[in-house]
Amino acid sequence: MTFLTIGHRGVMGVEPENTLRSFVRAEHEGMDVIELDLHLSKDGALVVMHDADVDRTTDGKGPISDFTLAELRELDAGEGERIPVFEEVVDAVAAPLQAEIKDTAAARALAEVLTRRDLLGRVDILSFHDEALAEIRTLLPTARTALVASRYGLDVIDRAHAIGAGMLVLNIRRLTLELVEKAHADDLKVIAWTVNTPDQLKLVRGLRLDGATTDFPEIRRAARFTA
After folding, report:
1. Residues annotated as part of the active site
2. Which of 18, 135, 137, 198 is geometrically suited to a Cys-Cys bond with 107, CB 3.0 to 4.6 A?
3. Is the bond into 5 cis (omega within 30 degrees of 0)?
């Protein structure tokens, strides 16, 4: 079984999250896949940031949706990095990507870029929002999608099937063997987040998960030796 290590917002444990610097570092460290988050700016740009506002990760304040892309570019996203747009990440690294839709309105913009740049083979589309993944399925019937969940039960499997998702990306703190076995029996892959310690890595390997999302490069190295 192939086990994937996924760089969370690049490698946010050692670099400013969701910046080109973080994504390039993740690729350099050998991450199998790089995960990022997407919102729309005031003028419709597909910007890479986790939170709905800029307060936590930049020197600005306020909702992303109140800023134009040009205004967002003026902010410091950590160590002098600027907030990137999705296509800049596509061009900066060659690794497969997981693009998480944080703002449902970003689904259509992402579908347009994936189509125009012929990226469906390289990008998995993730979201906590069932409606965003359902819209992606309508716009891009062959897209690979994954349902993300933090608080969930066995019902998350039915939710994934209802919207055509082929993968679950789940909070490690609620994972059970019963859920993993049922998901695998229903042809769903299961990824855990966030796996940042050796004990957490041993747990996901013991549960025979398909991968782990991590903040730290050393988890990638440890994964090779953890059965």
Report:
1. 8, 50
2. 135
3. no
